[in-house]
Amino acid sequence: MCGIVGYTGRRKAAPILLDALSRLEYRGYDSAGLAVRDGEKLAEVVKATGKLIHLADKTDQGRALEGNCGIGHTRWATHGDPSLINAHPHVSGNCSGSGSGEVESEVVGVHNGIIENFAELKDKLLRHGYTFYSETDTEVLIKLVDYYYRKYKIGPVDAINRMMVRVRGSYALALMFRDYPGEIFAARKDSPMIIGTKDGETYLASDVPAILKYTREVYYIDNLQVARIAPGQVTFYDLNGDEVELPRTEITWDAAAAERGGFEHFMLKEIHEQPAAVRDTLNSLIRDGRIDLSASGLTEEELRAAEQIDIVACGSAWHVGMAAQYVIEGLAGLPVRVELASEFRYRQLPLNERTLVIVISQSGETADSLAALRVAKERGAKTLAIVNVIGSTIAREADHVLYTLAGPEIAVATTKAYSAQLVTADVLAVELASVRGMMDDARRDELLAELMTLPDKINRILEEKERLQWFSSKIANTHDIFFIGRGLDYAISLEGSLKMKEISYIHSEAYAAGELKHGTISLIENNTLVIGVLTQNDLYEKTLSNMMECKSRGAYLMGLTTNGHFSVEDSVNFTVYIPKTDGFFMASLAVIPLQLLAYYTSVNRGLDVDKPRNLAKSVTVE
Ligand code: G6P
What we know:
- The chain is α/β, with parallel strands linked by helices.
- It has 20 helices and 28 strands.
- Helix 4 packs across helix 5, helix 10 (about 315-330) runs parallel beside helix 14 and helix 15 (about 440-465) runs parallel beside helix 20 (about 585-605).
- The chain is globular and about 75 Å long.
């Protein structure tokens, strides 16, 4: 959702804040703002609607703002439309016009998240004489801190603590107080926030890539804690106001990994990073030809004891779950349910200690996935997280964690994290099958060896991307696309369809091929594009028949199949061939052309590939 940054040190703050925000634009981008303070002088606020570049232009790339201490924000609107007045930072006092200018108020701040009881709090503040200039819940939050700060004449830490006790919802918050020049106060609940120090400077961000260039030594501030930040120093406090020590974590991601590195878009770069992401992830799970999950602490006994697996996730991570379902059931013979986290958290699913709940998440911060994890733990299930961001909340709260080694993913539409999650689930499926006696050693070794061939096979698909680029130019003006498949091919269709619609804005749907004729086929008209995924040996002929049913109603067909099924070419208008692998691992290969197709279609339509409208990479609100 929104991105938050902060800096206090000896350099000019605004250019650093803008640079850090530019790495967070994927979190939200309908407006942006800065508050910067020069020594004892009052803070100055500048805001701009639209993309960050407008804020950079308005401040001469930050050069126009004096001061070594400041906070910044990119917004993804929740409460209130994306106008200048609703843009952050917000202040505790009154605000005229656009909200830019000198801040006379006691408190100025930026916020990510949602305050659920904001209406009730606003009423309380109105009764105490506060007035409101914006429609945001953030203004309420900041005024509530101000209220406690003035009423009890307590310092910022205690005022924030009182606010935290009173507020329901999720937030990451960075505040500056008029009486505390050079300092920033931060707090969070269920919304990520990290703080890093180096060489007498301190940085704060809602996400690792923002400050990776400046420091790798970070602290993950915990829920309901406050951080007091000064140049090169940070002190943490708990809800009682007592000082607490937090461990420092070293981020091992390569800073260059968060740059575009010559590619036109992050998405294209990340598509090309998939062989490495898959290889690195596999190498962390398979050592000397043997599966080694010891880093997660998962024991063979736990894997043997599981009677039911529930996979819970959102978006593409949920699609990984859909694919993993077929693989785990097929290899290990265990029942698997795949649930959307936003649904799972409110259902009354019976869970117990023999249920293994697997939460899959790139960011490790998705609000619904985190809530689902907590529900699973409360109901006594064992939990395993498959997460990309080290130290993220889901990673820390799950009983066990397997990290994917995809590195920082910047494009909103996930590619390499999806691929890394997929092979992690595959390895887990093989291990489950093996320890539960569903597979002999020879078959296990054969599957592990096959997994290790995937990076090269992905490379081979990438080498033929021009064909997809050409085809995408033909379909760029299509209105509707249907992705169909059966079994694992259905799971692949789900991801192909989501990729397409989220970045090309072409309406698309994924359907289980056999289900088409129960309604959806009435939508097929002349030239409707139907993309059939045909990688499963025992099912592809059936899907092909369903495609032919569409063709006889005017559909234009693309088939995605493996080398060898050359007869597909006779039936469809355009065929994409991918290398062969074990049927259980086909998703890792089949998804690549679908990512490329979505990417090139978006480019052909002149859209902002990396930052599609209305979307955010990390969804930290419900
Ligand atoms: C957002 C992203 C998706 C992602 C989903 C889950 O909607 O745009 O790409 O799959 O969140 O995110 P997570 O970080 O939990 O994997």
